[in-house]
Amino acid sequence: MNMNKKGVTILELLISISLIGVVILMLLKVMFSLDSINNDQSYASNDEIDRTSIIKEIEQDFLENKLRGIDIKKEKDNTLITFKYDNKEEILSIYIDRLEYKSVSYKLESSNATYDLDINYTYDDLNPYYLITLNIPVLIKGENTTLNDDITLTYLNLKNAQDSY
Question: Coil, strand, or helix at residue 20?
Answer without folding.
Answer: helix
